[in-house]
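User: I've been trying to design a sequence by hand for this structure and keep getting stuck. Would you show me what you'd pick, starting by listing the structure so we're on the same page?

Assistant: Good idea, let's start from the same input. This is the structure you sent:
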């Protein structure tokens, strides 16, 4: 099957002249399409922390490339010094965002590649790191395609799909996860209707999801987050499709703030709620959602970021958690690259992935 032309098929990649990582700056979308070439430690960290690159899988891919780029700049000539420097960079990038486990998984894979080649000269270790970063990226491309194809089993012509945040090509590779099925369906001539939550406060749904779907020719309608209940009640929604940032062993799922509320609404209206999850997002070390660290972000994002003038007095307190955890009992199925996993999630996820 031909691959669909999503807008940025490689929105994170190695620069041709490098070593550097090239990304589309997601904070500038949809109004400006700006590519950034990054190679400094601080700018690599900043790109993740400020969501220039965002979405759990894309952060993982970016981290792999970033570790290679930093390693390629080393002045160390003996392994111990090189490894110490690598670990310092790893810890530094790992602290950029806490919730998406893809970041940690990618960093660990890079370290494993380094250790497998520890007897080789430094230049060869650096080449091995480059190869590993490309493998992480390729794996994500493959996982996204497989997940999107499994998702086709969950839809039929004319279905209305509610989305939250952005789980498309920008957040991953090529098709994306939560949006991948909508893109694949389009490619196959199956018309679906997407209802996209704007996703306060950083508006990934409005700025990124509708941007991707509109460009791909998928019928999409933007709604404010507080309209979800109404569109469900009006019968416009046949299923909810969301991505995830960390899935605990029992199926509890961290995703963009507001996801758990949608799951509760979906249960009330008897609408299936699907989580699209590459295995790079499963964390068997977290037994339940209680173990998942939720990122707290700057209150100014709520009050100021997307407004011409602040919408509240400077002294007003804000609480700005970036994610919430959806209880596994609210999830109809978890769509992975190895198939659609239904409850009991603990048993079925372990059977497929350990
Ligand atoms: O804060 P963000 O924009 O990085 O949050 C992203 C999400 O919550 C996505 O739904 C998740 O990372 C899955 S992307 C395939």
């Amino acid at each position: 099957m031909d691959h669909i032309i999503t807008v940025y098929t490689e929105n994170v990649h190695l620069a041709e002249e490098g070593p550097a990582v090239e990304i589309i700056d997601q904070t500038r979308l949809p109004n400006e399409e700006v590519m950034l070439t990054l190679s400094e430690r601080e700018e690599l960290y900043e790109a993740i922390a400020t969501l220039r690159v965002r979405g759990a899988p894309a952060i993982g891919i970016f981290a792999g490339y970033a570790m290679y780029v930093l390693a390629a700049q080393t002045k160390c000539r003996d392994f111990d010094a090189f490894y110490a420097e690598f670990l310092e960079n790893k810890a530094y990038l790992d602290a950029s965002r806490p919730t998406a486990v893809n970041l940690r998984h990618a960093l660990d894979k890079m370290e494993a590649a380094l250790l497998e080649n520890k007897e080789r000269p430094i230049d060869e270790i650096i080449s091995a790191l480059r190869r590993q970063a490309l493998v992480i990226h390729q794996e994500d491309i493959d996982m996204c395609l497989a997940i999107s194809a499994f998702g086709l089993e969950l839809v039929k012509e004319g279905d209305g799909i509610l989305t939250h945040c952005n789980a498309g090509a920008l957040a991953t590779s090529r098709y994306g996860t939560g949006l991948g099925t909508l893109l694949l369906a389009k490619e196959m001539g199956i018309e679906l209707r997407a209802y996209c939550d704007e996703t306060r406060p950083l508006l990934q749904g409005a700025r990124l999801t509708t941007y991707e779907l509109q460009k791909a020719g998928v019928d999409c309608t933007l709604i404010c987050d507080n309209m979800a209940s109404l569109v469900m009640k009006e019968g416009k929604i046949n299923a909810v499709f969301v991505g995830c940032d960390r899935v605990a062993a029992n199926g509890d799922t961290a995703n963009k703030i507001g996801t758990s509320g949608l799951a509760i609404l979906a249960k009330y209206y008897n609408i299936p709620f699907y989580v699209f999850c590459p295995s790079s997002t499963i964390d068997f070390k977290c037994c339940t959602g209680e173990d998942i660290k939720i990122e707290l972000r700057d209150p100014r994002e709520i009050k100021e970021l997307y407004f011409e003038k602040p919408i509240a007095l400077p002294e007003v307190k804000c609480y700005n958690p970036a994610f919430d955890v959806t209880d596994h009992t609210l999830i109809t199925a978890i769509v992975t690259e190895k198939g659609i996993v239904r409850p009991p999630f603990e048993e079925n996820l372990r059977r497929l992935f350990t």
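That's my pick for every position. To get oriented when you compare it with your attempt: Confidence is low (pLDDT under 50) at residues 1-5. The longest helix spans residues 122-151.
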